[in-house]
Write a structure and sequence with these properties.
six-stranded antiparallel beta sheet; SH3 type barrels
């Protein structure tokens, strides 16, 4: 991962395919025209109408969720597509990890022991994205049961 992004089109493409790609988009800083600067802002949404981008949603390092008009953005510095485990924005990192844990539990509940290749690929991608440090004992035991099967899809 750690892919450099070259514009709003790239950001939109990554966010639109986030389930397949994993990861999130983090900037070294995002500055508005008013001069406000947000270090390690994580871009969560880019709104598009036709072929025009009109707003950007992001989460600041303090956990503040903001949606701003594209015209209000002065600089998006060094946006990168990163694994969740590599994020410097700890507030957003914790939020996304909780969501991924919830999604993983639901995934295991739905498949109930019927582990298809697509299921295994998705679980492997999520675990690679968030890291192997899973505090939930129930979820951790479910993952450890299928860990050997990951080798067959690698």
């Amino acid at each position: 991962m750690r892919i450099q992004i070259n514009g709003l089109r790239d950001i939109h493409a990554i966010l639109s395919n986030q389930r397949k790609l994993g990861g999130v988009i983090e900037t070294s800083f995002l500055r508005l025209r008013s001069g406000e600067e947000y270090p390690y802002a994580c871009i969560t949404h880019v709104d598009l109408l036709g072929s025009n981008y009109y707003s950007i949603g992001f989460v600041t390092n303090e956990g503040k969720k903001m949606i701003v008009n594209v015209n209000e953005v002065s600089v998006i510095s060094s946006p990168e597509h990163k694994k969740i485990s590599e994020l410097k924005n700890s507030v957003y990192k914790n939020l996304v990890i909780k969501e991924k844990f919830k999604y993983l539990k639901r995934l295991f509940d739905i498949h109930q022991g019927s582990y298809t290749i697509h299921f295994l690929k998705e679980v492997k991608m999520i675990i690679d994205d968030i890291g192997f440090d899973i505090p939930d004992p129930e979820l951790s035991s479910m993952i450890s049961k299928i860990k050997d099967q990951f080798k067959s899809i690698a």
